[in-house]
């Protein structure tokens, strides 16, 4: 009897039983069904989401474009691969020479024979899937090419419309790359098949290649060389958008002297050489010899090295370098002009500005409004103050950085710091699935404060506050289901009652009545969302009743990015209260990297500053572009989640192209509500890209550009420890320009010279919608003036003053408090530059800072440091400051309406004037939307007259 424990024992393993086979097949089928349903769930939930926001056409267009590209290019690649495998098999020699090599291959041929058709099909399917997936990813290129709109601008080298480089050339390069891939796959497949069936031999007597294999491979190589000729021809045009480093511009784009005089003719010569070489390959099957084709290919390779490499190097070394400035000047000029045009800075106005060191009442008078509107509330510091004073309930919160807007009639609009009381689930005491997704579903109300004023305790002067919120913003839907901090899904509707807030009278609840969300009435839909959110309770929870809907993708940025995947979205959405609605406003950019001669910039680098991390991110971190326009203004309703796209730049050809690709998705500019228009503003990310370029491209003289005699840079933020550049600031100010008589809401920034800290220039762009919207003005300080302090020198002056240092040390140590410096604002005032910085103090144990001091510097050495802005400016200007505010009257905040007007009866003359203000303001907005500038001017004059009448009526005895 054999030893069962010995090494020779092998237990009998029979075939699996029928029951086991059935079980395995069932499990396999279930796994496949589950995987299929997971794929279906992703598709189905995406479709339902797009349908719920009324942008199903975007989903359908993108989907069918991808499917079409996948099918066409996938089938094409599969057909090419299968055709060449079939052709190589048909061209096999009838008898294989007897050799050890062929005897070894016989075993493989015999093994493959029964499965040959299936193997060919599998190979074709594999390469087709890879090619199709790659092609589907190019759906943007296809839509741009098929819907291309003309720029109406021709490049300075080839005199082609810019649309050729932006829309056509990228698609042609993709087609060329696909063709190269198809030829390479065909050559590899043909080599393997010819070798397997004896068409190619490494051993044995006679020819190494059969006539059929030789002809087949020669034609394929000829096609490859022919494609190389096409590549050389396209490379000529690609020189106009070729990016490299030149002088101090890392993304310098366009032809230089060596490109125009060496590379360009070299590409033309190589194109001709490649055509001849391709012809020699096509003649190989006829001549039955490789020699001419191989000699031609060798000459082509040698030409590529000598003509395409050595010759340009010689030109650069012996023609350009000895006289580089003169040689490069015409091409630098082309680069400067194209860059300024592509980034929208061609019309920027440079004003020579010699700053004064002192100012009197007469010189300060024109800037009274600028002084009156100096913003003391830093929206990047006072969020904890809003949180502590206006959070009301632990499950509400404010974003780390608040927003700045304007409220009030146009001529009397006031800079306002605004924040929304959004849902914060971290503050919910009992966290569970029902509370997180059914009960605590939304935030509640906006909180606003005057930007230029604090009360006598250093706290914001709120114009909208409380829960429910009340004040100057009027009546509006206060529930916030969609916000910057709302990053989880909510299930609303049906029988579910959600928590609004808790008041003295008890718990206040409501039911969602907006039109947003996806219905969960369908069991298949519930199952799909159970898979999407990995939450099985979607399937069986009794809390989901008939009429229930799920809200998700609830941040404004992701909603707009999803419905407009062709837009880059500004990193700072801001809320607006208009027409009884609370909406988020977002700026959308169209971009391109195909504008000839325009230098490229990396958006993530250009838009990063000291507040980027606090605000949540940069604009498309790694994208390199050389054309950008703020072409779309988008809104997201905070209650319904409705997304609306408005055309803002109707001259942008990239936007026109996308509007043809996605018809009906973008509303015309005329559709922008008149109540929303005054709240639109110039976007920060575009401004940061433009100021980054203007550091170099303010120099329009090629010689100055080449020598780098006047390079500017954005200063490092002196109030931040991040060592990042200073962010731009929204301010209401008057630029010292004869054409700008009134103060305007503006976005501003400073420049310092390279490697120095004195002020080089001040930049401001008009941010109020109107005739001057987007006008960039640069106040250029004379290069001989090195005494005007830049932001870091201003901060150093503050810190080095003995009285300032002593006071701050007493506050920090004696009061056991922390000091937080607010935004350092630079303003052109009285013929010089006024720098103002609020100083916040956070006492030990306190949860928010309060404004205690205001620092100011004017000119070179005039420094003031007082408790209020009014006192600081009086000290700074020896009592000459006009229009300054700083604190509310002692005793607390003004009424919630924010106007300071007591309740009760109103003077009839004043009421009449206020009515006239409202009418003139409405008329001006309607005229602006209609483009009727004559009516707009008349309405503006009527508005000013009404404001004067109101002021006279208010101050009459």
Can you walk through the features of this model?
With 957 residues, the chain is of the alpha+beta class. It folds into seven domains: 55-209, no CATH class; 224-342, no CATH class; 346-371 and 681-893, no CATH class; 373-480, no CATH class; 489-551, no CATH class; 555-680, no CATH class; 908-955. The protein is 43% helix and 18% strand. The protein contains 27 helices and 35 strands. Strands 3, 26, 27, 28, 29 and 30 form a six-stranded mixed β-sheet that branches. Strands 18, 19, 20, 23, 24 and 25 form a six-stranded mixed β-sheet that branches. It has a five-stranded antiparallel β-sheet with strand order 5-6-9-10-11. Helix 1 packs across helix 15, helix 8 (257-287) packs antiparallel against helix 9 (291-320) and helix 26 (908-930) runs antiparallel to helix 27. 44% of the residues are buried.
Overall body shape: globular
Unreliable spans are 888-905
What percent strand?
15-25%
Radius of gyration computed on alpha carbons: 35 Å
The beta-strand count equals 35
User: Structural class, from helix and strand content?
Assistant: alpha+beta
Number of helices: 27
């Amino acid at each position: 009897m054999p030893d069962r424990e010995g090494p020779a024992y092998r237990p009998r393993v029979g075939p699996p039983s029928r029951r086991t086979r059935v079980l395995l097949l069932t499990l396999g089928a279930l796994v496949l069904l589950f995987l299929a349903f997971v794929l279906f769930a992703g598709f189905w939930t995406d479709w339902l989401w797009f349908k719920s926001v009324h942008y199903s056409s975007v989903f359908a267009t993108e989907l069918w474009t991808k499917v079409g590209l996948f099918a066409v290019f996938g089938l094409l690649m599969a057909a090419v691969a299968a055709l060449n495998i079939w052709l190589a098999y048909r061209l096999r020699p009838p008898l294989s020479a007897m050799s050890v090599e062929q005897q070894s291959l016989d075993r493989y041929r015999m093994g493959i024979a029964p499965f040959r058709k299936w193997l060919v099909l599998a190979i074709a399917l594999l390469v087709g899937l890879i090619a199709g997936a790659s092609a589907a990813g190019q759906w943007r290129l296809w839509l741009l090419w098929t819907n291309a709109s003309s720029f109406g601008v021709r490049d300075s080298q080839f005199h082609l419309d810019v649309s050729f480089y932006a829309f056509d050339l990228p698609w042609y390069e993709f087609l060329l790359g696909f063709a190269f891939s198809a030829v390479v796959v065909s050559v590899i497949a043909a080599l393997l098949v010819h070798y397997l069936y004896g068409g190619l031999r490494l051993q044995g007597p006679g020819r190494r290649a059969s006539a059929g294999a030789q002809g087949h491979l020669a034609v394929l190589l000829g096609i490859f060389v022919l494609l190389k000729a096409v590549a050389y021809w396209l490379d000529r045009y690609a020189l106009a958008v070729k990016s490299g480093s030149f002088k101090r511009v890392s993304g310098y784009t366009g032809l230089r002297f060596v490109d125009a005089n060496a590379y360009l003719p070299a590409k033309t010569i190589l194109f001709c050489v490649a055509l001849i070489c391709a012809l020699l390959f096509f003649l190989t099957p006829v001549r039955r010899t490789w020699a001419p084709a191989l000699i031609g290919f060798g000459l082509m390779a040698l030409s590529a090295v000598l003509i395409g490499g050595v010759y340009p190097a010689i030109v650069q070394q012996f023609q350009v370098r000895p006289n580089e400035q003169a040689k490069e000047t015409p091409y630098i000029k082309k680069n400067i002009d194209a860059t300024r045009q592509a980034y929208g800075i061609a019309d920027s106005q440079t004003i020579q500005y010699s700053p004064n060191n002192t100012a009197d009442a007469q010189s300060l008078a024109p800037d009274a409004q600028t002084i009156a509107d100096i913003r003391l509330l830093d929206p990047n510091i006072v969020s904890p103050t809003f949180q502590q004073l206006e959070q009301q309930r632990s499950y509400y919160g404010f974003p780390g950085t608040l927003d700045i807007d304007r409220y009030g009639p146009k001529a009397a609009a006031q800079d306002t710091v605004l924040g929304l009381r959004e849902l914060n689930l971290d503050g919910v005491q009992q966290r569970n699935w029902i509370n997180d997704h059914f009960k605590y579903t939304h935030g509640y109300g906006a909180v606003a404060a005057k930007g230029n004023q604090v009360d006598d305790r250093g706290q914001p002067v709120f114009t909208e506050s409380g829960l429910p919120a009340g004040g100057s913003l009027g009546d509006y839907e206060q529930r916030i289901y969609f916000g910057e901090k709302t990053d989880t899904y909510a299930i609303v509707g049906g029988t579910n009652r959600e928590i609004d807030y808790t008041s003295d009278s008890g718990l206040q609840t409501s039911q969602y009545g907006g039109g947003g969300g996806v219905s969960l009435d369908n069991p298949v839909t519930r199952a799909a969302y159970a898979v999407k959110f990995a939450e099985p309770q979607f399937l069986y929870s009794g809390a989901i009743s008939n009429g229930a809907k799920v809200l998700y993708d609830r941040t404004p940025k992701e909603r707009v990015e999803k419905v407009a995947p062709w837009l880059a979205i500004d990193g700072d959405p801001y809320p607006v209260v208009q027409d009884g609605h609370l909406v988020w406003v977002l700026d959308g950019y169209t971009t391109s990297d195909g504008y000839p001669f325009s230098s490229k910039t990396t958006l993530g680098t250009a838009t990063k500053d000291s507040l980027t991390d606090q605000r949540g991110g940069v604009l498309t971190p790694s994208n390199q572009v050389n054309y950008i326009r703020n072409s779309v203004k988008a809104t997201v309703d905070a209650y319904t989640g409705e997304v609306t796209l408005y055309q803002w730049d109707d001259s942008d050809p990239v936007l026109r192209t996308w509007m043809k690709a996605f018809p009906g998705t973008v509303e015309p500019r005329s559709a922008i509500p008149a109540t929303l228009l005054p709240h639109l503003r110039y976007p920060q990310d575009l401004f940061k890209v433009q100021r980054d370029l203007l550091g170099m491209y303010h120099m329009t003289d090629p010689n100055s550009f080449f020598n780098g005699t006047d390079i500017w840079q954005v200063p490092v933020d002196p109030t931040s420890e991040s060592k990042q550049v200073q962010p731009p600031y929204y301010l209401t100010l008057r630029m010292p320009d004869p054409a700008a008589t009134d103060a305007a809401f503006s976005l501003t920034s400073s420049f310092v010279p390279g490697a120095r800290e004195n002020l080089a220039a001040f930049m401001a762009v008009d941010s109020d919608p109107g005739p001057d919207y987007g006008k960039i003005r640069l106040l250029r300080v004379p290069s001989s003036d090195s005494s005007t302090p830049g932001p870091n020198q201003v901060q150093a002056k503050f810190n080095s003053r003995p009285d300032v240092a002593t006071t701050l040390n007493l506050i920090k140590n004696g009061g056991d408090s922390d000091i937080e410096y607010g935004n350092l604002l630079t303003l052109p005032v009285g013929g010089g530059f006024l720098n103002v910085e609020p100083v916040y103090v956070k006492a030990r144990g306190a949860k928010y800072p309060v404004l205690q001091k205001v620092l100011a510097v004017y000119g070179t050495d005039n420094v003031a440091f007082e408790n209020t802005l009014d006192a600081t400016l009086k000290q700074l200007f020896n009592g000459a400051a006009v229009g300054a505010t700083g604190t509310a009257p002692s005793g607390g905040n003004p009424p919630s309406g924010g106007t300071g007007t007591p309740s009760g009866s109103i003077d009839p003359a004043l009421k009449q004037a206020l009515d006239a203000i409202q009418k003139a303001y409405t008329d001006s907005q309607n005229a602006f939307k209609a483009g009727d500038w004559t009516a707009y001017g008349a309405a503006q004059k009527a508005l000013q007259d009404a404001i004067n009448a109101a002021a006279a009526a208010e101050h009459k005895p």
